[in-house]
Design goal:
Shape: globular
CATH architecture: Sandwich
Low-confidence stretches: 1-6
Order of helices and strands: HHHHHEEEEEEEHEEEEEEE
CATH topology: Protocatechuate 3,4-Dioxygenase, subunit A
CATH superfamily: Aromatic compound dioxygenase
Number of strands: 14
Strand content: 15-25%
Structural class: alpha/beta
Largest sheet: 6 strands, mixed
Mean pLDDT: 92
Number of helices: 6
Helix content: 25-40%
Length: 283
């Protein structure tokens, strides 16, 4: 039997990986006008001024804030911090007009280019991958109920220890990541393992803030998905598990009732089975 060991991730290596991945994303600076930047930044600064005045910020507190901001950058944790505390509101605004499936945050651990897989498939995993087997089925359809045969489901999730491949040492590159192409009826049938809840990195600047504020650091167990098809709007979402720990105290505020799965015993007696349909809006 192959023994699986993973070196303990740190805020430094996890943060550096997340920052490097973010810096590879296509920039959209040219789409933002000078007037828009002026409005957004001015209001952000004004809001900060208001906090200083209302709460009588002291110089020691101000110096502590500056030191913390510097440390967030040194730890490479800006993608983590912003995705945890701000992205859920950005997502809510961006998807307010959708008729189809609910979205939620992407988070800092997405990696493009996952292996292409058929509609009925098993995600790449290690021999003797720890965890409870999970069969995930469903289909992709339009808001009118028609199947979308051209759809692709980009799926990624943490392992049974709460770690993501490419963001923790000792895990194969594409472990528990794949790009699944649905069949002619828009259906998919994915075999994987149940992900575990996990704490966001707590040994860096973000963790120090959580400790200072007395806030929890946990995320409930979840899948990440990006579902796309030509002529339809991409949906980025996460799926959670009914009865799972931390559903009501997710540090990223990303849980929505519509995104909770209801596991049942698998037909073969091995693990669980969950089902979910994705509904895409036309462009």
């Amino acid at each position: 039997m192959t023994e699986l060991t993973v070196a303990q991730p740190t805020a430094a290596n996890s943060g550096a990986s997340a920052t490097a991945r973010f810096q590879q994303k296509t920039r959209v600076d040219a789409l933002t006008t000078t007037e828009r930047v002026d409005t957004l930044v001015s209001e952000l600064i004004t809001a900060a001024h208001d906090i200083v005045v209302r709460h009588h910020l002291t110089y020691p507190e101000y110096d502590a804030l500056k030191a913390w901001l510097v440390q967030v950058g040194a730890d490479g944790e800006w993608p983590l911090f912003l995705d945890v505390f701000l992205e859920h509101v950005v997502e809510q605004v961006a998807n307010a007009d959708r008729q189809g499936s609910k979205g939620t945050i992407e988070g800092p651990y997405y990696v493009p280019g996952a292996p292409a897989l058929p509609a009925q498939t098993t995600l790449p995993m290690r021999e003797n991958e720890p965890g409870t087997p999970l069969r995930f089925t469903g289909r992709v359809r339009t808001v009118d109920g028609e199947p979308i045969a051209s759809a692709t489901i980009d799926i990624w999730h943490a392992d049974d220890a709460g770690y993501y491949s490419q963001f923790a040492p000792g895990i194969p590159e594409w472990n528990l990541r794949g790009s699944v192409h649905v069949d002619d009826e828009g259906r998919f049938d994915i075999t994987t393992i149940e992900p575990a809840p996990y704490q966001i990195p707590t040994d860096g600047a973000t963790g120090k803030l959580l400790a200072a504020a007395g806030w929890p650091a946990w995320r409930p167990a979840h899948f990440h998905v990006k579902v796309s098809a030509p002529g339809y709007r991409l949906i980025t979402s996460q799926l959670y598990f009914d009865g799972g720990e931390h559903l009501g105290s997710d540090i990223a505020s990303a849980v929505k009732p519509e995104l909770i799965l209801h596991p049942k015993p698998a037909a073969d007696g091995k693990g669980h089975h969950v089902s979910y349909d994705f509904v895409l809006d036309a462009d």
